[in-house]
Amino acid sequence: MRVGESGADRDAVVIGAGLGGLVCAGYLASAGYRVLVVESHDVAGGCGHVFRRRRAYEFDVGVHYLGDCGPDGVLPLVLRGLGIADRVRHRPLDPDGFDRLRLPGLSLDVPASWEGYRARLLAALPGEQAALDEFLTTCREIGGELRTGFLRYDPAAPPARPGPALARWGRRSLADLFEHCGLSVPARAVLAAQSSNYGTPPAATAVPTHAAVLDHYLRGASYPQGGGQSLVAALVEALEAAGGELRTRCAATRVLVDDGRVSGVELSDGSTVRTPLVVSNADYRRTVLDLVGAEHFPAWLTRRTARATMAGGLLSLFVALDTELPGATGANLWWHRTADPDAAYRPHPDPERFRPEALMFSFASGKDAPGANCPPGHTNFQAIAVCPAELPEPPGNGRGYRRDAAYLRLKERWTEAMLDAAEEALGPLRPHLTHLELSTPHTHRRYTGASGGTPYGFSDWGGTGGRPAARTPLPGLHVVGANARYGSGITGAAMSGLACAAELLGRPLAAEIQAGALPAAPPRLPARGPGWDPLAVSRGAARRTARGLARLDPARPAPAPRAAAAATALPARTGPAALSTAPAPHPRPPHE
């Protein structure tokens, strides 16, 4: 690819300002490419963005915790190559138990080491040492090999031969490995208890997916100081410092193709940008079938893409309380109603009577600095469950669902069911609610355009765990993000962006960063003065000071429980809880 190709407006256009798109764009811009990133939302970040409510609460959409963020970690390496590693500070979660698993009759706190994890499993599951050792050895070997392969990736070198474990288990399911090792049902439930990190049950989860996620977090869990938007803002600063441009509220409506290769992009403002290179961080299915068109791809690829299954969509309940929950520290809580690892993924026969079989709780107020995402003395957390049913396609071209009476009724019932389950796990909450808001797969699809409204991308694209490579059969079109190789999640998306940039530049970027060759020169990053706001930065330079930015106001009196709570509260729940809490509310949930 030639920089400054004659007749082109830009050397590259990146569609979508998620983590994969921003990382790839940053490296291309640093290499001298004239890069434009277009984003349909009013802020960059994709699943890494935040939203604010009542001038008091900031909720992370998808950044609940990060793994492998030590000095030699993968995400710090990606940031270091752009000269912004020192702009993203990581707050370590408890190394003795960053994930707390609570199942009927069994509790386990996951520590930050393979050895510690093994010891906890053996203590919780006596009599299964041989089966657990075989399982853990396989996962550790595969997870380590995948990580090393990324760090050594050289687009000019032939692909490395997989090791024995990866060769044997690379396209087989987690359920197959459970069966091979002879693990009991309780053991399978514990080992798959954190499966909503990738959104598929054991039978639909490739062993490398589970192994990579497990290895990622056992290397140490952390949370970015200032939340996910601080990470996004640093990437935007790197992009703009290198001469790239971010345009928010600007969607790509069509990728243009001439003479069998990419020639430009049509935008929602009616303009056309001529470019020989498009990197799509948009949904893969939408990219192939809608933005480009099936006629420009081999028949096998369009069939595979149309038939592919997606990982599970999520229900996310965003909760704020006017009290601190005792024990709600930075550790995540994984609460399960049963010891059945598949229970949370079975379609509910009557979605209106849904009750969650499992919830993941992320306590943001315990992860960041006091007062960073809620007033002092308050609690900010999320409760996350797999959506119990596939929602019908929303009316109104994807936006009319917010006014659809049937959807609103279902959403309100799901909100109640999620809150009921949260009280089963945590104790009474309702009297202390100051904010309550539920997002569904429709919400996710509206903001990210993701097929199925899932943040996790494909479950099966030509086989369990199969995902497309960055380079597509259409010359000039590459893809990054949740559907691409390296998988979903914040770090997975960032890895896809770096690997795509390495392929386009023909350089082993990860190796160059490790050797200290990148960045070649310190980037001219902007100073961060008083009042620096990562959400404002993430709007892009042209819209940074535009009206409509939600802000936090520490001087504003902290919100009190809603008056509606007293009239609509359900009876307080008592009984065992995973966390002890003070007494507890219920406002009418907003439908946004």
Automatic annotation (TrEMBL):
Pfam family, one: Amino_oxidase
SUPFAM superfamilies per UniProt: FAD/NAD(P)-binding domain (SSF51905)
Organism: Kitasatospora setae (strain ATCC 33774 / DSM 43861 / JCM 3304 / KCC A-0304 / NBRC 14216 / KM-6054) (Streptomyces setae)
Amine oxidase domain residues: 19-325
InterPro entries: Amino_oxidase, FAD/NAD-bd_sf, Retinol_saturase
Alphabetical keyword list: FAD, Flavoprotein, Membrane, NAD, NADP, Signal, Transmembrane, Transmembrane helix
Renumbered residue ranges of the record's region Disordered: 548-592
Protein name: Putative oxidoreductase
Transmembrane portions of the chain: 12-33
Biased composition (Low complexity): 561-579
MF-aspect GO terms: oxidoreductase activity
